[in-house]
Design brief:
Catalytic activity: AMP + H2O = D-ribose 5-phosphate + adenine
Strand content: 5-15%
Protein name: AMP nucleosidase
CATH class of the largest domain: Alpha Beta
Structural class: alpha/beta
Pfam families: DUF4478, Lysine_decarbox, PpnN_C
CATH architecture of the largest domain: 3-Layer(aba) Sandwich
EC number: 3.2.2.4
Radius of gyration: 21 Å
Enzyme class: hydrolase
Number of strands: 14
Number of helices: 18
Helix content: 40-55%
Strand order of the largest sheet: 9-8-7-6-10-11-12
Length: 457
């Protein structure tokens, strides 16, 4: 990535940080000089790079080594001073409105995350405590809106996809928007942008006000998948596990489009939860879909689930080929069942409290070489536990592909090794090889992909 034009600027907040107490202002100011500063700087740089076709956090950080952000206290609250910031985030010297909103959302989330960790009410030693923590983070971001009937559709899929797959995701988003459904994604490019773009047009056709385009991300991935400008609610969760739990707690149904290892990670996380015996009766519509060109991909993913987790896992989702209208119809029908179920059980519409998520899905997984090599990938494990471990394997590959820390580990220690039963390793290796051949590991047009892993049976 070549050095781009830069600009110095002073930016004041608009939105959730306009009205602050003196204690909150002091807390924000301290971030500028504390250990959290590095994290905020990285997230800020990613947001200012929105629209850049780069999926390597290390590359972006190195291209803007001189970028700096300072948090200053003023009478009204806080102000950000930016030095050597990407000029594309500005028009005639003024920061683009969506960029400014997301920049201060990042500051809000990072500060609140740090402050909550020291709060006596936070208990991260139990599963219920972790869920409560996720709830507080989402509530502070004003994401939870009681009284609204289930209409939030989560869309998962890759950032490295073909033009046809991107257009198809827009068509599905358009059909969802015509049915007045809101969209939540990982907030980046590709499938994370397409459904939002399609829904935007449809919401305009329906003269719908207050449409929500919710983007959920985490610090390790945001630099590689900078938020797309359609996102009007950005929430940065502290790690991938909190982000995944947020998806399934606030989303009422999930559509999975073509993608790579990140999409597979999300899919396996979801299946692992839905396969838990406590969740067998919980309605949660899940649809795999894509254009005709993606039929092989969808079949490969379906076959992989059957070979590793079994037929019961395959029953927890539907597959719809090349039919955006049918996808939206099935999702709408599924949401009716969700609405009925939650009313009967007196569960909240805005946060799925009844869904059982075990600690194994909530504890952060640090993909060191030792941790990746020691993952238990055996056929004798219960399906939901095997799904959790497969999810961790894919999470490690994502880190080695796009995250700054993971990339540096691969450079220092070489490729990850993934060990397990041959009956699992063979379909895993076949699926990963298909991702490589279909250019789903990295954005096309860049440096040829070099695997950061080695599958060992």
């Amino acid at each position: 990535m070549t050095q781009r034009n830069v600009i110095n600027a002073s930016v004041s907040p608009k939105g959730s940080l306009e009205t602050l107490s003196q204690r909150e202002v002091q807390q924000l100011s301290e971030v500028g000089s504390g250990s959290t500063h590095k994290l905020f700087r990285q997230c800020a740089l990613a947001i200012l790079n929105t629209g850049t076709r780069i999926d390597n956090a290390k590359t972006i950080l190195e291209a803007y080594e001189d970028f700096e952000v300072r948090i200053l206290q003023q009478d009204r609250g806080v102000r950000l001073e930016l030095f050597n910031a990407p000029a594309d985030a500005f028009v005639d010297g003024e920061m683009i409105a969506s960029t400014r909103e997301m920049l201060f959302s990042a500051l809000r989330d990072i500060v609140y995350t740090e402050s909550e960790l020291s709060s006596a009410r936070i208990d991260l030693s139990t599963s219920h405590g972790i869920t409560d923590y996720v709830f507080h983070l989402l509530r502070n971001a004003r994401t939870l809106r009681p009284g609204i009937e289930p209409n939030m559709v989560v869309c998962w899929g890759g950032h490295s996809i073909s033009t046809e797959e991107y257009k198809y995701s827009k068509r599905v988003g358009h059909e969802l928007g015509l049915r007045s459904l809101d969209v939540c994604t990982g907030c980046g490019p590709g499938v994370m942008k397409g459904p939002m773009k399609g829904a935007t047009i449809a919401h305009a056709k329906q003269r719908r006000n207050g449409s929500r385009y919710l983007g959920l991300t985490e610090p390790g991935i945001i630099a590689a998948e900078a938020p797309n400008p359609i996102v009007n609610e950005l929430v940065i969760l502290p790690d991938i596990e909190k982000r995944l739990e947020a998806f399934v707690r606030v989303g009422h149904g999930i559509i999975i489009f073509p993608g790579g290892v990140g999409t597979a990670e999300e899919f396996l996380y979801l299946l692992g939860i839905l396969l838990h015996p406590a969740n067998c009766d919980v309605p949660f519509p899940v649809i795999l879909t894509g254009p005709s060109d993606a039929a092989d991909y969808l079949q490969q993913l379906h076959d992989f689930v059957g070979a590793t987790l079994g037929e019961e896992a395959q029953k927890r989702y539907q597959i719809v080929f090349n039919d955006p209208t049918e996808v939206a119809r099935q999702m709408t029908e599924g949401l009716r069942e969700v609405r009925r179920f939650r009313r009967e059980r007196n569960d909240a519409f805005h946060f799925n409290w009844l869904l059982k998520i075990e600690e194994g899905f909530q504890r952060p997984f640090d993909p060191t070489h030792e941790a990746m090599a020691s993952l238990p990938l055996r056929r004798d494990l219960p399906p939901h536990e095997l799904a959790a471990n497969l999810r961790r394997a894919f999470s490690g590959i994502v880190a080695g592909n796009v995250k700054d820390k993971g990339i540096r580990r691969i450079e220092q220690y070489g490729r990850y090794e993934i060990h397990g039963d041959a009956a699992i390793m063979q379909p895993l290796d076949k699926l990963l090889q298909a991702f490589v051949e279909q250019h789903r590991m990295k954005l096309p047009g860049g440096v040829p992909y070099t695997p950061c892993y080695r599958v060992v049976s």
